[in-house]
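Design job #97: recover the sequence.
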């Protein structure tokens, strides 16, 4: 979700990669659906593991949620940041409504990060 939203908002202003600590075999269909509602696209994405070489070269690594842990690698240039995202299911909110709330939380963070990475030149 975060990568698709960043690609959408950044429109090429930053290079975006997505990976997981334990990637599944397919993109979550409900995630793709709610991301598409705001004009972003996850449809061509494929789950993939973290590439240590890529990890060394990026400016920022964003970890979504509290479950995944990404350890720094030797020679890493950037920083690792964990986004403790809202989990609506703890309040009994499920399905598409839950996914929209998760999307909106991530989208707010993505836009803030984009402003930071582009020194506010990309609004």
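Job complete. Output follows.
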């Amino acid at each position: 979700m975060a990568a698709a939203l960043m690609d959408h908002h950044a429109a090429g202003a930053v290079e975006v990669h997505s990976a997981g600590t334990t990637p599944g075999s397919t993109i979550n269909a409900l995630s793709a659906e709610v991301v598409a509602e705001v004009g972003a696209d996850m449809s061509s994405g494929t789950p993939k593991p973290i590439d240590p070489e890529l990890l060394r070269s990026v400016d920022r690594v964003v970890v979504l949620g509290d479950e995944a842990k990404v350890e720094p690698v030797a020679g890493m240039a950037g920083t690792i940041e964990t986004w403790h995202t809202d989990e609506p299911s703890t309040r009994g909110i499920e399905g598409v409504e839950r996914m929209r709330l998760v999307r909106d939380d991530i989208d707010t963070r993505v836009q803030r990060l984009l402003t930071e990475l582009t020194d506010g030149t990309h609004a």
